[in-house]
Each structure stands twice: as structure tokens, then as C-alpha cells.
Amino acid sequence: MTEPATQTQTVEEQDRPGIIDAVPVRHPWRYVAIAVLAVLALMFLHLLLFNPAFNWPFVFEAMNQQVVIQGFIKGTLMCTVLAMFFGVIGGVILAIMRLSTNPILRGVSWLYTWFFRAIPRLVLLTIMGVLGILFPLSKGGLSIGVPFDWVFIKWLGLSGDWRFYSVDANTLFSGFVGAIVGLAASEAAYMAEIARAGINSVDKGQMEAAQAVGMSRSLAMRRIVLPQAMRVIVPPTGNETIAMLKDTSLLIALPLSTEMFFQLSQIGARTFQLFPVFVAATLYYLIATSILMIGQAYLEKRFGRGFGTKVKSDKDKAAAGLQAGGAK
């Protein structure tokens, strides 16, 4: 009874090919590329260490100046945090308005996004620095009170000051407040598109199911849609945060004297060592962006839990392949 089976196995073994003597493909140009890159890296390292234009002692001395450190903390980092905070909040509100069924809200959101995305941040910050011309101090500056008070005075014959609070607009917009307003207003336009893309990535059935169990649209947006949209929103928001950190150097257009790049530029102008202070600014930005990239990677991992599969090792890959091949 076993002879036919044995004969069949023998025939199958004869039909099988022998051991394949595979010859690995050679890639000589890889070694050429590695050699060229190694030479270029050594040349760049030699340039960094031995070129006197870098003046490394002065670079580190400039980085350790108290005004520079305070400018980095109170100017660069503080402006980044506040601008992104108000920019993200404004962007989410604009995205919800853009997705609203109310045509007026959709129109206002589109108009805002169109306007502030069209203006470069350097131009916008420069405008913020001279925005006080719209509210001259001779006419009371920027004030809070009854609007169009001149109409009441002229038409009703009323007299008196209808302003409850006034402030010098030149001082307000050319300082820290103007920096935050300018950066946050620009960032809100970009975050609106990012948030809108994230919200649209969530299946509409999620909103319908939430409303079916009695949730209002706003409550479902906060508890159901936005938490799921964060998986899509976080990566570009991290990029925007890094870009915002670097764009704080544009505050020199105001100029904001408490910002780090402004202080380093002043040191370079006084000592005629412009290139070393620019290297010092570069090191500050490299350190800060590296930390932000680590935080971004953590947030992406945190909000990306439960989406897709992740195989940790080759052993797991082999086990997954065997399991998939055996399932019929």
C-alpha cells in the first residue's frame, strides 16, 4: 500500500531543481559613492575646525551672553509657544467654520485663509511694526469705547469722550504683542487647512453615529472626530511648530529687541564678527529643532496607536508570513 506513494514522492523529488548557486549582484559604484562622501565629509570637517572665519571661541562666547540666552527663552521660545497656541486654536475654529453648513461662516473662513496665506510673514510682521499709523496717538490711539463716536457727536449734538480705554498703537504693535498677533494670525490660516484635512480624514459615519446616540454636533466634534483627526493633524503641526521656531528670526523686522537673533545681530554689528554670530544662531536653532523633532516623533507614536500593524523583528515577520500562508 505504501509503494505507490513512495514512488510518487521519488518522482516529485526528481522533478525538483537542485540547490541554486546564486551569485550576488555586485555594486562597485556604491563603494565609489561612499569614498566620495567620506572625502567630502572630511573636507567639511576640516573647514569647520581649521578655517579661522568660524572663530569658535567667539561663537561660544556669544552664545553664552546673558542677553542672548534671555532672548532665546523669552523671545524665540516664548513667541513660538504663544504663536502656535493661538494659531492652533484659531486654525481649528476656522476649519470648523469652513466645514459648517452656514454659508456665511464658510465664506468668512475662506476669506481669512486666502488673505493671510497670501502675505509672506516678513511682509506681515513689517506691516505690524507700522500698523500704529492707523490709530494715531493724536486721535486717541487704539481705544475701546462707543464706535463711530463722531457720528453721535455730530448727529445728536452730544459731547464728551466716548473712549473707555486707550493705548499707544505704535508701542503695542511694534513690540511683543505685535509679534504674537502677526505670527498667530498667519499660522491660523495654515492650521485651518491642516485641521480641515484631518477632520475630513475621519469617516463621516463617526459623526452620524455620535449624533444618533444623542450627541450634539459640537460635542461629537470635540469627543469623537477631533481625537481621531489628531493622527493626521499632528505630523504637519509638528512641522509648522519647527517652522514657527525658525520664523521668529523674522521678528527682526519689527524689530523685537528681546528676540535672540536680534541680540546676536547687534553683537555682530558691534564687534564686526557677523559670521560667527550667525553660526551661533544656527547652533541654537539646530538644538531647539532637534528637541522638537523628538517631541514630534513621540506625539506621532502616541496618537498613531491602533492604526496599522508594526512588526518588531525578522522573527516576527517570518511567523506572520507562516501564519498567513497556513490560513486557507
Automatic annotation (TrEMBL):
<dbReference type="InterPro" id="IPR000515">
    <property type="entry name" value="MetI-like"/>
</dbReference>
<comment type="similarity">
    <text>Belongs to the binding-protein-dependent transport system permease family.</text>
</comment>
<dbReference type="InterPro" id="IPR043429">
    <property type="entry name" value="ArtM/GltK/GlnP/TcyL/YhdX-like"/>
</dbReference>
<protein>
    <submittedName>
        <fullName>Amino acid ABC transporter permease</fullName>
    </submittedName>
</protein>
<feature type="transmembrane region" description="Helical">
    <location>
        <begin position="31"/>
        <end position="51"/>
    </location>
</feature>
<keyword id="KW-0812">Transmembrane</keyword>
<keyword id="KW-0472">Membrane</keyword>
<dbReference type="InterPro" id="IPR035906">
    <property type="entry name" value="MetI-like_sf"/>
</dbReference>
<keyword id="KW-0029">Amino-acid transport</keyword>
<feature type="transmembrane region" description="Helical">
    <location>
        <begin position="71"/>
        <end position="97"/>
    </location>
</feature>
<feature type="transmembrane region" description="Helical">
    <location>
        <begin position="118"/>
        <end position="137"/>
    </location>
</feature>
<feature type="domain" description="ABC transmembrane type-1">
    <location>
        <begin position="73"/>
        <end position="296"/>
    </location>
</feature>
<feature type="transmembrane region" description="Helical">
    <location>
        <begin position="172"/>
        <end position="192"/>
    </location>
</feature>
<feature type="transmembrane region" description="Helical">
    <location>
        <begin position="275"/>
        <end position="295"/>
    </location>
</feature>
<dbReference type="Pfam" id="PF00528">
    <property type="entry name" value="BPD_transp_1"/>
</dbReference>
<keyword id="KW-0813">Transport</keyword>
<keyword id="KW-1133">Transmembrane helix</keyword>
